[in-house]
């Protein structure tokens, strides 16, 4: 895989250089008449007609560097130097290899007195737009814009790269106003050089559709990065190649263009150092996107029953061999007309080894089992998307054609309670869709809209266990060779509607009518392969052939008041749903019909220009999907057998939310507090019979309810005198639910308290520090006599110090500490430390970097987890100490 990536990377380099040529650089020094250097002087590279084609400033040593654009005409070039208090000078370029040094003479012009009241404000506010000056928050060690964004007051970036402003996740990430990446913005934050970005802007109340602005209320928050002029003029690119011990490699090459008419981020990367390249292509808003489509796509039915990943950064635990090609290109065909293509392919080989203990607490009894798994997983992920967007003030069209193909092959060497077996799991998921949205404004100012979405999905799954386990359940206590489970839910789905909007002086009225259809067929069979090779059904209920057809017809009235003080949105949908599902194997032929009213209301009151109060209420009816209708047994993992014996789950959910947000931009102070309460009523409950070796689940027709109360708050403040951004957050959550285990109804109350504090400080131009602490306290108890309460506390510390002794030498030392206190077990302590040293060779535009990961050589990590009456503790094998040396270059 490494050879393939290097070969492709070489081809791309040849292609770029063959088309654009090698960039050439003009260099020189600037001094005054006494021989002293002149820092911060402006250096311009000018073509004929005094057209500026490159710009820079002298550094502390009085040196400057100007890169000639590859497509520039080399004749008629000149360098012009200017600085306050000196006479302007220029020189014609006769040789690009010669230095052009300047000696400036004092100017006799008398300047008027100027009083500086505010040095280059770090944050500007204009309407709903906040603009952060990137230069004010950048440290010498920062390489990509993601390094800077996480320092900005009011903005938070989680471990997966998801960005939030004042506690609210962003909906879009723009590059100079263009949506190149949708919500897969990790591509930008981990690639765009911080030196190329001028400002980071927060766009509150973002309404991306121009014709709906000031007509339809939006509470979305978006981020926009504006680029410097010189970053828009030419192709930018970086590459690095490295290796290390034990047997490590890491390399990538990228090319970027950010012109007004064309934007692109294209790259190749591969590594086996634990860097998860799949994180680059994660969709941060996938849940809300599927909710908008009203398309509940079926997820995988089968799994290996693995423990999941530990609560560590991926480079701490991941054994991988990854490769990713990612191509993102956008063309502005004409004003307000865009064509965008996004293509990615990822291939990986991942290993995981762990030991897991699980305990289920019952009144007067505790059920335990222990498992060991040695897992291999090989994902192949292909994503292709083409989007046409026309966004005018009176016309809007967006059409997205999307295809995803995911192929997983997994293997697990399993040992549970001393019984060994091998598992193999394969699945191939194909997902194709087209979404079209058209809006047009009439001469009277009314807005007409048509929408159509169609989706096709298949996902055949096959899992084999050999030799067969749980002989008492599947083969009358006789040994057998294999246990084979197959499953698939091929699906067709379409959603279509027409709408009419009438913008009034204060209120916009919207009326919509539409329908969606879903056709599915759940096929599954569980078979036993005997020692002599014969194949038989595992039981009389081991197959499913369930047909499902769902019809939804709805009308909706909506009212938007996008005022300056009051912003209100009310939606009043009335829905008719009918579901028919049948399976001849079980004489099943049911029809389900319901009429639902699901009102939603949100209101916001701006108490001042920078403070607001918000409130929301929603009532939603949800119906279970096809996975709650099948009657035959499905072995979802090696120890869980699931079936249903009840009508479809009906859930009524009422949710109330309150919030208060405050910002003082001039003081860079942000804080907010939010509270929400959800009450769920359900018409059935899942009953489980749990033993030390096996678990059988079935849905039963008993009324059930759940309650969840959450209170959370965030705060962020930049202290000018300390050059420090302080941040914090707190969350309190109370969950009440019922468990039906081994014939007992057990109500459980789980309370979780979470706290986080952080500081990013710039002590000087040479030293900066960062520190974060996360603490979580979880309690779970039941009022039933004999049920044991459980509690544990987890705390994580993260710290880093950056030091650059010279302008081209950078050192970094970072570390993590994880602490867990458990009521029934010994406390856990784990420490990790990393070190990096980077040396920049300016003349060759080359960086050399040494990285040492996991200095303490920690090779195991234990992760406890508590929910209701279930406790698990998984002990993972880690890669241990790792050392790599990389060479990075820019072109």
Morphology: globular
Write the CATH homologous superfamily of the largest domain: TonB-dependent receptor, beta-barrel domain
- The termini sit apart by 25 Å
Radius of gyration over C-alpha positions, nearest whole angstrom: 31 Å
Overall pLDDT? 88
CATH fold title of the largest domain? Maltoporin, Chain A
Uncertain spans: 1-22, 110-120
- Tally of domains: 2
The percentage of residues in β strands lies in: over 45%
How many beta-strand runs? 53
The portion of residues assigned to helices is under 10%
CATH class of the largest domain: Mainly Beta
Structural class: mainly beta
Tell me the major beta sheet: 38 strands, mixed
DSSP summary: helix tally: 7
CATH architecture grouping of the largest domain? Beta Barrel
Give an overview in words.
It is globular and about 100 Å long. The protein has 891 residues and is mainly beta. The protein has seven helices and 53 strands. The protein folds into two domains: 2-104, Sandwich (Immunoglobulin-like), CATH 2.60.40.10; 262-890, Maltoporin, Chain A (Beta Barrel). The chain has a 38-stranded mixed β-sheet that branches. Mean pLDDT is 88; it is low at 1-22 and 110-120. The longest helix has 19 residues, at 2-20.
